[in-house]
Fold this protein.
Amino acid sequence: MIIHYKNQGEYIPYEEIGKKVCFDDDLTINLAKRQEDQEVHIDICYDKYGELVIGAAAGRRYVAEIDIPKKEYIYPDPGEEDPEPPTPVPLDMDTVTLTLWAID
């Protein structure tokens, strides 16, 4: 993952587990499942009770942002008779951007 730090301070602990990201051993997001045919942006926030939530509408304070690139496909040779449909390329976690906000 590409990591950016939005401001200075203490950041939420996170762990990359395969194609998932787990924040503070509490909120886990399967990034491969969230990948779509366009770029995906996910906001991670604390709500008014100090609980982690997905989405800025439910949140009070930013913790992190995740940007997932759009899906890529392998296309069959157009000259083939009765070609197979395009095959999605698995998510490359090195192309995902995680932006962390100070939580202190």
Summary: Strands lie at 2-5, 14-17, 20-23, 27-30, 40-46, 52-54, 61-68, 73-74, 87-88, 97-100. The helical segments are 31-34.
